[in-house]
Amino acid sequence: MAEIARIADPVGFAVQKDILNRPVREVDRAGHREMWLTVLAVAFLVVAVLVALWQQAEIKQLGYDVEKLQKARAAEEAANYDLRVELESLRSLKRIEQLAPQLDLVAPANGDAIVIERVTPSPAPAKGLVARR
Fold first, then answer.
1. What is the gyration radius of the CA atoms in the chain, in angstroms?
2. What are the beta bridge partners of residue 14?
3. How far is 123 from 108, CA to CA, in rounded Å?
4. What's the chain look like in SS3?
5. How confident is the model at residue 119 (pLDDT cuts 50, 70, 90)?
6. CB of 31 within 8 A of CB of 18?
7. What is the mean pLDDT of residues 36-40?
8. For 40-96, how does the pLDDT look when each residue is reduced to its tens digit (9 = 90+)?
């Protein structure tokens, strides 16, 4: 059953060596368990590294988003300032006095009273007109 191979000795004599070429019939359970534990440990480490890298990428992306939002806020604040300046210039009394003649407006005299018309509420309806349940 065993095959015998002849290996040349450095001195020149032939030495016979037995080579057993039988397949292993039983499963090495301890070896498989160790292999799977190693695979699981490596997979866990790979997942941990990927999660850490993903978090770092998200932090960088959020930093870029914050920077973009800060620039947009600064631009909106500048536009708001410009609009407030324009509003105040449109409200200025000098401008209104210049536009008054074109609109046929006159300045009140010292004795004139300025009357602001107010709408008075209408009286309550008569009891006969109120709907009943």
1. 49
2. 8
3. 34
4. CCEEEEEECCCCCEEEEEECCCCCCCCCHHHHHHHHHHHHHHHHHHHHHHHHHHHHHHHHHHHHHHHHHHHHHHHHHHHHHHHHHHHHHHHCHHHHHHHCHHHCCCCCCCCCCCCCCCCCCCCCCCHHHCCCC
5. confident
6. no
7. 96
8. 999 999 999 999 999 999 999 999 999 999 999 999 999 999 999 999 999 998 898
How far apart, in whole angstroms, are the C-alpha atoms of residue 5 and residue 2? 10
Is the whole model's pTM more than 0.85, yes or no?
A: no
The token pair at 107 is 């300045």
Closest by CA to 21, choosing from 3, 33, 5, is 3
Say whether pLDDT at 1 is over 70: no
Give the Cα-Cα-Cα angle 107, 103, 119 (nearest 5 degrees).
Answer: 75
> Which tokens sit at 25?
């019939």
Residue 28: φ, ψ to 5°? -85, 90
The span from the CA of 85 to the CA of 121, in Å, is 39
Strand partners, 88: none
